[in-house]
């Protein structure tokens, strides 16, 4: 009985926690605790002088109280979420007052011709589907406009925000059957159901701010309000007033933990082994033996951090670059899981969170390796192995069908409400004309006016009578409503510039449930008049006259025929307004039902977690508050946050659930800081870009810094060391085997290339530097030519404009076809690393404009940028501009530059040093022309002897001779005829004589007889026999296996000998039919392979002319030119040659086999083709990609162009 009572009490507690987090109880009054979740019109319409007066966010001193702290965090964070839209609306109002055009500008996007088309009744709530017109054509799949979660301000066309302002949130922006329509469609959710608009003819104006993103703070704001309603053991640390770090009560009750998971192998000393297996964390710090690294995977600083993480209420672990933050976190989780299993009773799960989905997946993957049962919240994982552990998939395996009785009752209520909304909408809209009785019920027309429409003496027309009494009254003034809708002007043809848009994939929509992750679906209730009245053609403004006629005429038939259409439109509008309060009330009820449904689903999920004994629940830091009801209901004791220094303070504070006893923060406050969308709110005194992690360390809160890095070579670590005084090198990074020199650089594994090339600005106001990008591209080519794999090189830059420019240059370089490119902005590369990193600093303004480095002055970004490389790090920038721009940049970049100087890794007057691996010559590159025809070596002639015995006549090159064709004349005797070879050494021997041709013909005939070919003829033979020469056919030279031709400096092409073609069947008379059949089979086979390999993007495009052989043996054209892809297939050619890519093609009159293009970095100079646009262009209209063959309009012949590589290597 006691257990049953305890279970009931526990269940009731969980019910209350879930309901309190979904049905948030707001305080009375107008304080911060009374604010609704979605901002109000009053907040958006505030003038600038009224919007001032935010509290300061103290980051250098403790807070006096939790109340003051939470209030400041809330008000600053709410302003950050609304300031962009508030400023945009006030800018719109100011422009309107001063008679200026309302165009898109640097502050806002303006959407006109906005109309409500329908309501979609989803389980999230009712969504309004609106159509709109942007002011220019938008490439929606490349655009960051209308992101789900963005705030919108909506007014009527007539009001222009003078008195009307309705606030909504973008719920989802599907492209298919949404943004791809004309006009585009988007789904929004009203902030207040009372603001809902139902008049489908009411023209609205919609404004979106360019700056600020409400969804990133929306759920944290609610969490901060909830945090004020309950206390946790962590609160005393958050305010900064409590410095003594205490032990959580649940650990004090069970202090014995097993630390043997950190051992490399079981200890021979049984006493020490037992001590590690049964370590009492209350007895003091973990004893660190001198041979710690000999017995443990962890170094001394990691072991110290580990003890803090498993034994203290608050653990702050700083991990400089390469010190193993995540590895240490995983070891701590292993120990926590082992201790959790030993504790009696139902044990709540451990909550782990990270700033990005990528970091979260890494952490959860390690938990899986430790045999932990995990659950992942949020559906935006890129890893397939995470999918079975999503909440949706786990729920599908566990939950009962139907969700239980209460769930079915809520679904019945929800569907009943939908039916009521639909019935009311149909009474206003629908296929018929409006019912006069509805107008009378709502007091829109009088009793006498109603009676005048039902006069029995009036004749009725049967086909009009079915539309209602208004059909006869309107007469020829009745018109289809689409006539008025379709006369709206279309969007401007001006095309918006491409955006380099990048945001976390978990904002596809704002759904809580992963069932709706891709698209939120529901019953769509359309708001559309089928019929309306004709407007009087000679009046621009007729509404007041229509109202006066309606007031004056008791008999509606007394209204002049020309004005009946206008009066009918007015009646339609009045009926919509009259029913709007009822519809809004139904929507409010529907929202409440959806909340109850969400609460019940969360409650069922909590039971599932405990019944399935799920040990670890993971989500992003945004998810900590988005799924707060579910997570708080699980009553977790421990919360571990990776990338805590990148996480906003409000996101963590709002996730301090009442049950929490232990908070572990892992990060590095000297790398990336939290992002603030409103720049002035990130600065003093509001400090939104200061994380809780950084603030507590600055307040001298106890923390541990990991101090042994395992990433960078020592010379690279010295560049970073000014920011980390005690950072040391692990022995592994000093090993030449583990960290070899960068080839072709003569042991200079870091370098600062200084230049004064001027920067530029693109159409998106992003900075770029063309000459710097070209220098980096050519250096990239040089490194690849010297054996560095392209995927082992990362190029970083601060600006998206420069990133796009670099990608274009890399893809367009003929020597890099088939290469993989890692080009990222610094902000997006936090937590990543690579062997070689090239940093493009871009900024170099014209001297007339003064020195300026923009946000290169941010030390957090600088630390990330200089700490990503393992083996080689090369910087490109204007040193003078960097160190003289401002005092902050002098300290920051002057310090970094001095580290290069101290190591002799900069020569400003000479440029970039290269060292030939063949001759040891040093080459200095200062200008772009200095690269000349460099093929990865120096300027000397090679002069080495090739394997064939000929001397190499090329310039010094890094490519092995075995992979280069010999272009010397071949003097071997051709065995078929006994004559000297007429070709080159790299070609198959031949001599242009009759004896050679006869010998080859006899050999071919013998080969056919061996294969049992019925007629001994192939398609190639027939074409040669019947006029192939007439349309430009030439028998290809027979090659010696796979060879390469061309110059190393100009790119190489790879060819292979012809492949055997299928012989014809029995009857030559049926050759035409046979050829047609084989053509069809080739087409079918190609189509299948296209479908099979579509996801690999290994496609080229050619133009193919369908042909056939007629009865006279002449090949003729049988159809229009077809543009289609050809397939590239990865193969391994014979004779130990490198892996190649075979491209299957079919061109008119060609009997040749496959053409090869290298995909291996062993051939860095192989230039298959110039880089084209992608074949499948989701961002644009479905236009064909560049063609690989072009028809000569004058001759009708085909001018063959090299096939273009359509692989998107970004």
What's the number of extended β-strand segments?
41
Content-based structural category: alpha/beta
Give the CA-based shape: globular
Q: How confident is the prediction overall: mean pLDDT?
A: 81
Q: What is the strand content?
A: 15-25%
Helix content: 25-40%
The major pleated sheet works out as: 7 strands, parallel
Uncertain parts: 500-508, 1013-1020, 1022-1069, 1092-1104, 1123-1210
> For the terminal residues, how far apart are their CA atoms?
64 Å
Major sheet strand order: 11-15-10-16-17-9-18
> Rounded to an integer, what's the Rg over CA atoms?
37 Å
How many distinct helices? Answer: 34
Keywords: ATP-binding, Helicase, Hydrolase, Nucleotide-binding
Protein name: P-loop containing nucleoside triphosphate hydrolase protein
GO molecular function, one term: helicase activity
Domain ZNFX1: 107-210
Can you give keywords for this protein?
single chain, 1210 residues, alpha/beta, seven-stranded parallel beta sheet, 16% strand, disordered C terminus
Describe this structure as you would to a colleague.
Helix 1 (2-22) packs antiparallel against helix 21 (561-611) and helix 27 packs across helix 28. This protein has 1210 residues and is α/β, with parallel strands linked by helices. It starts with a helix and ends in a 10-residue tail after the last strand. It has 34 helices and 41 strands. The strands form twelve sheets. The chain has a seven-stranded parallel beta sheet, covered by helices on one side. A six-stranded antiparallel barrel has the order 1-2-5-4-3-6. Residues 1197-1210 have a biased composition (Acidic residues).
């Amino acid at each position: 009985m006691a257990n049953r009572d305890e279970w009931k009490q526990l269940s009731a507690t969980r019910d209350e926690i879930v309901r309190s987090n979904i049905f948030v109880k707001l305080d009375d009054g107008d304080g911060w605790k009374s604010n609704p979740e979605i901002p109000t019109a009053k907040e958006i319409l505030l003038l600038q002088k009224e919007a001032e007066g935010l509290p300061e966010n103290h980051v250098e001193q403790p807070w006096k109280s939790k109340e003051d702290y939470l209030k400041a965090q809330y008000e600053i964070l709410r302003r950050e979420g609304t300031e962009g839209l508030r400023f945009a609306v006030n800018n719109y109002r100011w422009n309107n007052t001063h008679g200026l055009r309302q165009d898109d500008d640097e502050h806002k996007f303006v959407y006109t011709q906005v109309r409500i088309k329908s309501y979609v009744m989803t389980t999230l709530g009712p969504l309004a589907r609106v159509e709109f017109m942007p002011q220019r054509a938008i490439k929606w799949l490349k655009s960051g406009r209308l992101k789900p979660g963005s705030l919108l301000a909506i007014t009527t066309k007539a009001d222009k925000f003078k008195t009307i302002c309705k606030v909504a949130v973008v719920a989802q922006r599907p492209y298919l059957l949404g943004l791809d329509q004309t006009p585009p469609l988007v789904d929004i959710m009203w902030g207040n159901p009372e603001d809902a608009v139902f008049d489908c003819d009411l023209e609205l104006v919609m404004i979106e701010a360019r700056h600020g993103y409400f969804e990133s703070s929306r759920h944290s704001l609610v969490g901060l309000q909830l945090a004020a309603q309950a206390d946790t053991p962590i609160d005393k640390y958050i305010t900064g007033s409590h410095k003594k770090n205490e032990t959580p009560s649940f650990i004090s009750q069970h202090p014995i933990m097993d630390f043997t998971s950190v051992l490399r192998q079981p200890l021979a000393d049984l006493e020490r082994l037992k001590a590690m297996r049964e370590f009492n964390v209350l007895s003091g710090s973990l004893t660190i033996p001198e041979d710690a690294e000999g017995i443990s995977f962890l170094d001394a600083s990691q072991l110290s951090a580990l003890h803090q993480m498993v034994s203290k209420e608050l653990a702050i672990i700083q991990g400089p670059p390469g010190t193993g933050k995540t590895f240490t976190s995983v070891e701590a989780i292993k120990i926590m899981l082992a201790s959790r299993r030993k504790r009696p009773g139902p044990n709540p799960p451990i909550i782990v969170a990270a700033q990005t989905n990528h970091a979260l997946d890494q952490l959860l993957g390690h938990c899986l390796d430790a045999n932990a049962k995990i659950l992942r919240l949020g559906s935006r994982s890129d890893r397939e192995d995470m999918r079975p552990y999503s909440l949706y998939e786990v729920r599908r395996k566990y939950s009962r069908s139907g969700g239980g009785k209460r769930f079915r009752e809520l679904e019945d209520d929800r569907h009943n409400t939908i039916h009521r909304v639909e019935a009311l909408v149909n009474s206003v809209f629908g296929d018929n004309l409006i019912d006069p009785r509805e107008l009378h019920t709502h007091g829109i027309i009088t009793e006498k006016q109603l009676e005048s429409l039902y006069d029995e003496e009036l004749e009725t027309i049967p086909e009009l009578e079915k539309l209602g009494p208004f059909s006869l009254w309107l007469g020829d003034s009745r018109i289809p409503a689409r006539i008025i809708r379709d006369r709206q002007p279309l969007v401007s043809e001006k095309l918006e510039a491409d955006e380099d848009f990048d945001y976390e994939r978990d904002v596809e929509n704002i759904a809580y449930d992963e069932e709706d992750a891709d698209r939120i679906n529901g019953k769509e209730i359309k708001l559309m008049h089928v019929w309306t009245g004709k407007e009087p053609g000679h009046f621009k403004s007729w509404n007041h006259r229509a109202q006066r006629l309606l007031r004056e005429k008791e008999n509606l038939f007394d209204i002049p025929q020309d004005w009946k259409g206008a009066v009918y439109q007015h009646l339609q509008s009045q009926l919509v307004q009259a029913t709007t309060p009822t519809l809004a009330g139904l929507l409010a009820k529907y929202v409440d039902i959806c909340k109850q449904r969400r609460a019940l689903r969360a409650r069922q999920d909590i039971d599932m977690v405990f019944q399935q004994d799920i040990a670890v629940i993971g989500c992003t830091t945004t998810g900590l508050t988005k799924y707060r009801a579910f997570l708080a209901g699980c009553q977790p004791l421990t919360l571990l946050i990776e990338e805590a220094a990148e996480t906003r303070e409000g996101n963590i504070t709002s996730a301090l659930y009442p049950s929490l006893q232990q908070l572990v923060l892992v990060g590095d406050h000297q790398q990336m800081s939290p992002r603030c969308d409103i720049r002035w709110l990130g600065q003093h005194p509001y400090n939104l870009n200061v994380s809780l992690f950084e603030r507590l360390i600055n307040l001298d809160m106890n923390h541990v810094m990991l101090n042994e890095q395992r990433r960078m070579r020592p010379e690279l670590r010295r560049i970073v060391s000014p920011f980390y005084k005690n950072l040391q090198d692990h022995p592994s990074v000093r090993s030449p085997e583990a960290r070899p020199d960068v080839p072709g650089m003569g042991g200079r594994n870091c370098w600062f290339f200084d230049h004064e090339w001027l920067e530029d600005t693109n159409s998106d106001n992003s900075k770029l530097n063309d000459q710097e990008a070209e220098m980096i591209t050519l250096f990239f080519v040089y490194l690849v030519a010297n054996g560095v794999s392209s995927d082992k090189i990362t190029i970083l830059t601060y600006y998206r404009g420069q990133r796009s420019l670099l990608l274009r240059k890399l893809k367009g370089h003929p020597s890099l076809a088939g290469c993989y490119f890692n080009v990222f902005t610094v902000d997006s590369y936090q937590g990543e690393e690579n062997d070689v990193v090239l940093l493009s600093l871009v900024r170099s303004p014209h001297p007339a404009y003064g020195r300026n480095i923009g946000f290169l002055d941010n030390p957090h970004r600088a630390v990330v940028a200089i700490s990503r490389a393992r083996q080689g790090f090369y910087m490109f920038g204007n040193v003078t501009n960097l160190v003289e721009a401002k005092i902050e940049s002098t300290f920051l970049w002057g310090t970094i530059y001095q580290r290069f100087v101290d190591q002799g890794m900069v020569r400003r007057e000479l440029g970039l040093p290269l060292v030939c691996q063949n001759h040891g010559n040093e080459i200095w590159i200062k200008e772009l022309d200095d690269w000349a025809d460099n093929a990865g070596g120096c300027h000397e002639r090679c002069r080495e002897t090739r394997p064939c015995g000929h001397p190499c006549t090329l310039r010094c090159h890094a490519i092995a001779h075995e992979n280069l064709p010999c272009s010397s004349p071949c003097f071997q005797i051709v065995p078929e005829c006994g004559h000297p070879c007429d070709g080159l050494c790299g070609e198959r021997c031949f001599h242009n004589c009759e004896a050679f041709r006869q010998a080859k013909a006899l050999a071919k005939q013998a080969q056919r007889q061996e294969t049992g070919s019925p007629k001994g003829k192939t398609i190639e033979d027939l074409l040669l026999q019947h006029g192939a020469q007439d349309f430009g056919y030439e028998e290809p030279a027979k090659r010696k296996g796979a060879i390469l031709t061309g110059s190393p400096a100009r790119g190489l092409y790879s060819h292979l000998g012809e492949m055997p073609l299928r012989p014809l069947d029995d009857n030559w008379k049926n050759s035409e039919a046979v050829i047609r059949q084989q053509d069809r089979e080739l087409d079918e086979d190609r189509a299948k392979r296209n479908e099979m390999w579509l996801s690999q993007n290994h496609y080229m495009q050619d133009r193919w002319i369908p042909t056939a052989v007629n009865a006279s043996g002449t090949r003729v054209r049988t159809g229009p030119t077809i543009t289609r892809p050809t397939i590239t297939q990865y193969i391994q050619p014979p004779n130990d040659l490198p892996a190649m890519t075979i491209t299957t093609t079919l061109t008119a009159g060609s009997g040749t086999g496959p053409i090869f293009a290298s995909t291996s970095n062993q051939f860095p100079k192989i230039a298959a083709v110039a880089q084209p646009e992608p074949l499948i262009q989701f961002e644009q209209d479905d236009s064909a990609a560049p063609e690989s063959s072009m028809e000569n309009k004058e001759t009708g012949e085909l001018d063959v162009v090299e096939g273009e590589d359509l692989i998107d290597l970004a």
